[in-house]
Amino acid sequence: MRRTQAPIDLNALQAFLAVCETGSMTGAAKQLGVSQSAVSQAIAALERDQGVVLFDRESRPPRPNIAGRALLELAGPLLEHAQMVSARIGDASNTGTLPVRLGCVDSFAATVGPELIRAVSGSARQIALWSGLTPGLSKQLHDRELDLAVCTQTTLNDARIVEVPLFSEAFVVVVSRTLLAERRNIDWRALALEMPMIRYTPRSVIGQQVERYARHLGIDSPRRYEFDATDPLLSLVAARLGFAISTPLCLWQARHYLPEIGVLPLPPGRLGRRDFFLLHRQGEWDAFAHDIVSLTRRVLEASIKPALARALPQLPDDALM
Predict the structure, then answer these.
(1) Helix %, strand %, coil % for the chain, to 5?
(2) Could you state, in order of their start, the residue ranges of all structural domains in the chain?
(3) Does domain 10-95 correspond to CATH entry 3.30.70.790?
(4) Is residue 2 very low, low, confident or very high in pLDDT (cuts 50, 70, 90)?
(5) SS3 category, 174
(6) Right CATH for 170-273 from 3.40.190.10, 3.40.1000.10, 3.30.43.10, 2.40.10.10
(7) Predicted local confidence at residue 267, as pLDDT
(8) Could you tell me which Pfam families the record lists for this protein (predicted)?
(9) Do 318 and 127 touch, CB atoms closer than 8 A?
(10) Which residue in 185, 176, 203 sits closest to 260, CA to CA?
C-alpha cells in the first residue's frame, strides 16, 4: 500500500530552496536569518514527511538528487503562490476590499438599506445585504456568518461584540384615515375599547415588544389577526377592520399605505420605544461600522423624517430620533 505523504511545510520548503541556492546549510541559515541547526532540522523533517532523501550528501557541496531536483522544479512556483495568497489577504484586509456581510432587520433593510447600497456602490467596498429577524441575525453574527448586524434588541452575552446605538423610534397607534376624519377627537383609549388590535406575530421581536407595551397600557384586545409583515397589517387597518401599534420605520417601509392611514400618539415611557443597534466584533470592521452609523443618521434626518412628517403630520416630533 502506498504511503500517504504529509502536506509540505512551507518553511521547510523555503529552507530546502535556500540550501539549493547557496550550496550549503550555513549559507541557507545566513540567507534566512536562522541558525544552521534550524535549517538542518527543517530539511530532515521535510525528508521524513515526504519519505525521500532530497540531497546527495556524499557530494561537496550537497546537491539535490533526483527527488530533490523534482522538488526544486516545483518549489519556486509553490512558494510564489503562497506569498501571493498572503499578500492578497493582507491587501484585502488593509484596503477594505473584502466583501462585508451585513444583516439587517426587515424594516431597516427596506428603508435605509437602499441608501446604504447606493453610498457603497461608488467605492471599492463590496457588500452583501441580508434581512431577517433579530434572533436569527444575532445568531448569524455569533456564528461568523455575518460581519455586522442591525438589530432591534441586544441578545448576545458576548464581550467581544460591540453594540453601537443607531437610533430610537416611538410606538404609535395606526388607524384608518377616514375614521380619524370622522372622529377627530378620538384617542387611543377609546379606540382600544371599540376595535380589535391587529398584531405582529409574537415570533418577531416587534410583535413581542408591542404585546408588552399593550399590556402595560391596559389594552386587552382579543387575538384575531396577526401578521409577520407590515403590509398586510396596514391593509386591514386601512379597511377599518381594526387598529394597530407600529413604528415610523415600519410605516415608511409600507409607505404606499400612508395616504390611507393616520396615527395617534401613545404615552411616553421605556416600553414605548424601539431601539436599533449596530453589532460587530471588537476590532473588526470598525471604520465601516462608523460609516454605517453616520450614513444611517444622515438618511433619517435628511430623507425619512421629513417625508414621514409630510405624510403623517400627526406623528410626534420625537417619533424618530
Answers:
(1) 50, 20, 30
(2) 10-95, 107-168+275-308, 170-273
(3) no
(4) very low
(5) strand
(6) 3.40.190.10
(7) 92
(8) HTH_1, LysR_substrate
(9) no
(10) 176
Nearest to 176 by CA among 158, 156, 150, 194: 194
CATH topology identical between 10-95 and 170-273: no
The CATH number given to 107-168+275-308 is 3.40.190.10
| pLDDT tens profile 37-96 | 888 898 888 888 888 898 887 777 778 888 888 888 888 777 777 666 655 555 555 545
List C-alpha distances in Å: 115 to 96, 111, 122, 130, 318: 20, 8, 12, 15, 23
Please give the pLDDT value at position 248. Answer: 95
Report the run of H or E that residue 10 belongs to, with start and end.
helix 10-22
Using one digit for the tens of pLDDT, what is the confidence trace for 273-301? 999 999 998 888 888 889 889 989 999 99
Find cell 499578500 and name the residue: 87
The one-letter amino acid code at 23 reads: G
Task: Give residue 173's Cα distance to chain centre.
Answer: 31
CA distances from 45 to 66, 79, 209 (A): 18, 18, 62
Sign of CA dihedral 8, 10, 12, 15: positive
